[in-house]
Amino acid sequence: MQATCRQRLERVRSRLKEEKLTALIVFSRASVRYLTGFTGSAGILIVGRDGCAWLVTDGRYKLQAKEQTKGTGVKIVITRMSDRVIANILKRAGGHRVGFESRYCTVAFLEKIKGELKGTKIRLESVVGIVEDLRAVKDERELAHIRQAAQLADAAFEQALKVLKVGMTERELAWEIEAFLRTQGADSIAFPPIIVSGERTALPHGQPSDRKLQKGDLVTMDLGAMVKGYCSDLTRTVVIGRPNGEQQRIYRAVWEAQQKGIESLMSNQKGKKVDTVVREVLDKYGLKKLFIHGTGHGVGLEIHEAPSLGQRSKDILKPNMVVTVEPGVYVPNFGGVRIEDLVLVTDGKPEVLTHSLNPPKILSV
């Protein structure tokens, strides 16, 4: 792992040279972990273009930081005055242009650093994607963890089908899924399970409630596991009892859209194009306007990361990217359907990493 982190740091330094930046301040916890191995909840990384790197954290993580970053060449700095220490490091590093991850830095903290740099020639510049672009393409170790997380998600869905019954609440079903994941090998859940039923399935990210499952309900289950920091993401929609005609029609449209979306995943494909393919299928059913989110997103150390599959996406797919394909249709006062799988982009045919039941007709439980 140490060698891998050193290689990743060198790739960041290459990007800094391309962007003519002296250093990069990394605030994202996922990116700090990716570059150093450090898993603590408080840590800011400064990557210098000249080969130096500093991890600034506090006394709680003194031993952990030293152990987890051993062999990476990263220097550990323990302090409570992180803004002042960061400024001092930048002063010693020299240079004028320093990038910082604006997406993960508060305005208040940024102003503190700028205050400490007042009177110097150092200028902080917002940057996006330097580390995220690297993280988007997974190595074999990362893929192994994601595969394990996907297997656990599949197992959790199978367990959910076994325990799901009329009269239980959405919260109870969510807990069954979470407890299963935590006791069957997951380090954690990737996110709190999204369990909605009946008319509430029209809520894409509805939180589990005390609503009791009833015969004839659509039930959407969105869940994921975390293994060694890496996430999985899976969604299935089922019906309790016999589905009606409109439930079947919506499900079939979403299923077809998902299959076409998966087929379109290939190296050098535009993320926007995948989204367009999915919307074209839903448009044939007159349901395009009821698809109110993007087709998918990258999955790795974060449940939502690069690349994106949506109409605003500028991302180009590359081999070893892992993405979701998750079209959905949401009808107010009726219900909705979403189907989601985790898919690996390859040089050829995409590989679906989640293998839960996904029939062309809605599954009746």
Q: How would you describe the overall organization of this protein?
A:
By secondary structure, the protein is an alpha+beta fold. The protein has two domains: 2-135, Creatine Amidinohydrolase, Chain A, domain 1 (3-Layer(aba) Sandwich), CATH 3.40.350; 137-364, Creatinase/methionine aminopeptidase superfamily (Creatine Amidinohydrolase). It has ten helices and 20 strands. The strands form six sheets. Strands 4-3-2-1-5-6 form a six-stranded mixed beta sheet, with helices on both faces. Strands 8-9-12-20 form a four-stranded mixed beta sheet, with helices on one face. Helix 3 (62-68) links the parallel strand 3 (53-57) and strand 4 (75-78). Helix 4 crosses helix 5 (107-116), helix 7 (140-163) packs across helix 8 (170-183) and helix 9 packs antiparallel against helix 10 (271-284).
CATH class of the largest domain: Alpha Beta
Q: What name is given to the CATH topology of the largest domain? A: Creatine Amidinohydrolase
Contiguous runs where pLDDT drops below 50 for at least 5 residues = none
Please report the total strand number as a whole number: 20
Strand line-up of the largest beta sheet: 4-3-2-1-5-6
- Helix count, DSSP H or I runs of 4 or more residues: 10
Give a quick account of the main beta sheet: strands, pairing sense, barrel closure. Answer: 6 strands, mixed
Structural domain count: 2
Bin the helical content. Answer: 25-40%
Q: Which percent band covers the strand fraction?
A: 15-25%
CATH architecture of the largest domain: Alpha-Beta Complex
- End-to-end separation in angstroms reads 44 Å
